[in-house]
Design goal:
Elements (H helix, E strand, L loop, with lengths): L38 H9 L7 H6 L9 H7 L2 H4 L17 H10 L1 H23 L3 H20 L13 H92 L13 H10 L5 E2 L3 E2 L6 E7 L12 E7 L33
Antiparallel strand pairs: 1-3, 2-3, 3-4
Keywords: Cytoplasm, Metal-binding, Receptor, Zinc
Pfam families: TRAF-mep_MATH, TRAF_BIRC3_bd
Family: Belongs to the TNF receptor-associated factor family.
Length: about 350
C-alpha cells in the first residue's frame, strides 16, 4: 500500500490502490523517474517538487491533475499524507490517509473509487462463496445486487451519483437498480392499494346505509300508499252514504210537502202555475199530463189525486182540457167499502179576477 517507503518509486500500484482524482489504470509509458498514480508515488513526486504524470494516466483522465485532485491536494496540503488516520474503506483496499479535516472531502471526491473497491471485494467474496458452497447463481446474483445497491446508497447517499462503473459490473448494477425501483414501485402501489381499500370500505358502508334508508323509504311509501287507498275507499263509501241520505232527505221533504198540501175532508184546491208553458210542453209531447198531490176523503178514508191533460185526452185531444180522479193505494184500504161510490164535483178557475167556473159532477 501507500504506507511503504516513499524514497523509491514503486513498480506498479496494487489492483485496489486507486486514489481519488485518478483513473483506475495501471501506468503505461511512465516518465523518468517512474511516476505512478498511487498515493505513495504522487506524494513522493510532490515532495521532490515534481509534477509528473504518465501520458497514459493523463490521457485517460484529464482531471487527474486538476485543482482539487489528489495531486493538487498533496501540493496545497502536505500534511494530509503525513497524517495517520486511514480511510473507512481501508478494509476493502483504499490507501488514503489523512486528518479528519480532509477525510470528508476525500469521501465526497472518491465515491467512484470506493464503489469499485466494494465491487472487487464483493466479486472475490462471491467467487469464494460459489466455489466453497456451490450455491445457485441466481440467489448469489440477487444478494450481490442488493449488497451493491445498499453500499451505493450508504456511500453516495443517492442513486443518481455520477460515479465510475466498471464494465464487468454494469449489468449487475442495472439489475440491482431495476430491482430496487420495482420494489419501491411495488411498495407505492401497495400503499395506494391500502388507501383505495379504505376508501372502498367507507363507500361500501355509505352504500349500505343508503340502501337501508332506501328500503325504509320504500316500506314507508308502501304504507302511505295503502293508507291513501283506504282513505279513498272511505271517501267513496261516504259519498255513497251521503247520496243515500240526500235521497232519503228528498223523500222526506217531498212527503212533508205532500202532508202539508194534503186535505183530509175530501176537498182539494189545486193551483197550477205557468199554464202557458205547460200547455206548450203538453202540445209538444214532452209533458203529457200533470199529477196533483194526494188528498183524502177523511182522515182514514180513500186516498185520491187528480190527473190533468192540458192538451186533452181521448176524443177531446187538442180541443178540450181533460181531468181525471185517480184512486191511489192507501194505508187503510182494507177498512173501506169497495168499489168507490162517492160523488165527485169539480170546479175550474181560469185565473185571477175571473169568475167561478161551472161545477161538474
Amino acid at each position: 500500500m501507500a504506507s511503504g517507503s516513499a524514497s523509491s518509486p514503486r513498480p506498479a500500484p496494487d489492483e485496489n490502490e486507486f486514489p481519488f482524482g485518478c483513473s483506475p489504470t495501471v501506468c503505461q509509458d511512465p516518465s523518468e523517474p517512474r511516476a505512478l498514480c498511487c498515493t505513495a508515488c504522487l506524494s513522493e513526486n510532490l515532495r521532490n517538487g515534481e509534477d509528473r504524470v504518465c501520458p497514459k494516466c493523463r490521457g485517460d483522465d484529464s482531471q487527474s491533475v486538476s485543482p482539487g485532485s489528489l495531486m493538487s491536494q498533496e501540493k496545497d496540503h502536505p500534511e494530509v499524507a503525513a497524517d495517520g488516520v486511514g480511510c473507512p474503506f481501508a478494509d476493502v483496499g483504499c490507501s488514503f490517509k489523512g486528518s479528519a479535516k480532509f477525510m470528508q472531502e476525500h469521501e465526497v471526491t472518491s465515491q467512484a473509487t470506493h464503489l469499485n473497491l466494494l465491487l472487487e471485494f464483493v466479486k472475490q467474496w462471491k467467487a469464494q462463496l460459489g466455489s466453497g458452497l456451490g450455491s445457485g447463481p441466481m440467489a448469489l446474483e440477487r444478494n450481490l445486487s442488493d449488497l451493491q445497491l445498499q453500499a451505493a446508497v450508504e456511500v453516495a447517499g443517492d442513486l443518481e451519483v455520477d460515479c465510475y462503473r466498471a464494465p464487468c459490473s454494469e449489468s449487475q448494477e442495472e439489475l440491482a437498480l431495476q430491482h430496487f425501483m420495482k420494489e419501491k414501485l411495488l411498495a407505492d402501489l401497495e400503499e395506494k392499494l391500502r388507501v383505495f381499500e379504505n376508501i372502498v370500505a367507507v363507500l361500501n358502508k355509505e352504500v349500505e346505509a343508503s340502501q337501508l334508508a332506501l328500503a325504509a323509504s320504500i316500506h314507508q311509501s308502501q304504507l302511505d300508499r295503502e293508507l291513501i287507498l283506504s282513505l279513498e275507499q272511505r271517501v267513496v263509501d261516504l259519498h255513497q252514504t251521503l247520496a243515500q241520505k240526500d235521497e232519503t232527505l228528498g223523500k222526506l221533504e217531498q212527503s212533508l210537502r205532500l202532508m202539508e198540501e194534503a186535505s183530509f175532508d175530501g176537498t182539494f184546491l189545486w193551483k197550477i202555475t205557468n199554464v202557458t208553458r205547460r200547455c206548450h210542453e203538453s202540445a209538444c209531447g214532452r209533458t203529457i199530463s200533470l199529477f196533483s198531490p194526494a188528498f183524502y176523503t177523511a182522515k182514514y178514508g180513500y186516498k185520491l189525486c187528480l190527473r190533468l191533460y192540458l192538451n186533452g185526452d181521448g176524443t177531446g185531444k187538442r180541443t178540450h182540457l181533460s181531468l181525471f180522479i185517480v184512486i191511489m193505494k192507501g194505508e187503510y184500504d182494507a177498512l173501506l167499502p169497495w168499489p168507490f161510490r162517492n160523488k165527485v164535483q169539480t170546479n175550474g178557475n181560469a185565473g185571477e179576477g175571473a169568475g167561478a167556473g161551472e161545477p161538474e159532477s
